[in-house]
Please model this.
Amino acid sequence: MLGTMQNVPLSIAQLLRYGSTVHGSSTVATWTGSESRVATYAQIGRRSAQLAHALRSLGVDSDQRVGTFMWNNNEHLEAYLAVPSMGAVLHTLNIRLFPEQLIYVVNHAEDYVIIVDGTLVPLLNQQLPKFTTVRHVVVANGDPSTVQAPDGVEVHGYEDLLAAQPEEFDWPSLDENTAAAMCYTSGTTGDPKGVVYSHRSIWLHSMQVCMTDGMALSQRDKTLAIVPQFHAMSWGLPYAAFMSGASLVMPDRFLQPEPIAKILATEKPTFAAAVPTVWQGLLQYLEQNPQDISHLREVVVGGSAVPPSLMHAFEEKHNVRVVHAWGMTETSPLGSVARPPRGVTGEQEWAYRYTQGRFPASVQARLIGADGKELPWDGKSVGELEVAGPWIAAAYYRDPDPEKFHDGWLRTGDVGHITPDGFLTLTDRAKDVIKSGGEWISSVELENHVMAHPAVAEAAVVGIPDEKWDERPLVAVVIKEGQSVTAAELREFLVDKVAKWQLPEYWTFIDEVPKTSVGKFDKKRLRARHAQGELTVETVK
Ligand code: AMP
Model:
């Protein structure tokens, strides 16, 4: 027997229609350096229709890929809404990819149009001649004449293209499994992999972002989306904002601690999301330049493990709750969120909050041991996390990777354990675990302990080859400005925190931990710097 309910396809067009009418007075504010330029969702709705007409005039009439090479801003939001709604596929390009990776993803996705922010034109110009399928470049917030277009590529101004276009569009009815948007992984090894989100997956994921134990986004919120729109769809915030009516604040290219502090002071958002390194930077800035940021009801932090010291500092110094979440490009990205169960308080509550959190009903999870067998959720057994669900990738775009997908599950490459009540703790990336004398040392755990030292700004731990033990941890430390600490003092600081055999003997002091294109610690580069003898290593026993 079938259900008797209507089979209405879930679509971005419906999110666009809903957000721009019912929540037509909600706003998106893009920072310009000194103030915000603001548009209502009603205006964004009209401009999205104009953008769709404009793209149609360039020949976008089916599932052509429309690339965006942009910061988080109003125009990028318009592309998020218009491109999938008209039946085309949005391809958010990571502006920080290495040139050869950028060329690879544009050609692999076969982008037909690229919308680029004026300030990013010089970066795009360098690679433009190597894009084989791009026929149109549209410049937003800048001068089209700066584009050095090769033969066969037409250049347009975003506003010129939109002007005089109708403010309504007859959005087509699409199968909900149609591709809506794509994003390539920022993997540090091999070619990037394309993840293609469907209208259905984005819709369901947006609902999860809005759910109380998700990010609890609602029309009462003003959301500062620091996480780039080119990184895992800004964690789904733009679509969830149109679903809930939450207003958006976009930082554009102003991502350093000082402008972020200024945006906070001016816009007073209630919610924000970014990777830990952004919050570490802001925290240090606020130490020198105090400012009330308690208008933030909470900030969701993920993308890498959040050091407990960071959570405490925000809560105790700034009265801002940091909520830890886990996800991946392949998981849309929201996978788990750490909201403690009812009734727990004090240290126990903190212990829950340090974890990567609980999975929602839509995301199934299992742990697989070294022997390929499933492990129990006992809070102890450590294995590789695998996940499945309606917003989890089932494959990469035109790139079979049987290693990553099997039996309908995604292998995450993350290693950890899960408690009987479903709280995930990741101990490491499979490739970052330090294998010392047949035992595993969690690089993340060591980092968290070192970063809890008051003189430490950042610390990254990598395994380095060791004749006797196979691998030993090397701790790379960035000291806070105006502070000092020695390797011996830091080792002493760890004595009562980790097992004796885990105590690191190799230390190096650096100016900055190298970061990936999305702001995570780049341990591959750190290992390479060590292998090339570029680091001065102190040995303390
Ligand atoms: P990306 O696809 O660039 O978002 O990277 C996804 C990867 O980031 C995951 O597989 C994890 O290794 C890492 N990651 C994301 N969130 C967390 C977290 N809360 N704790 C630890 N690692 C995380």
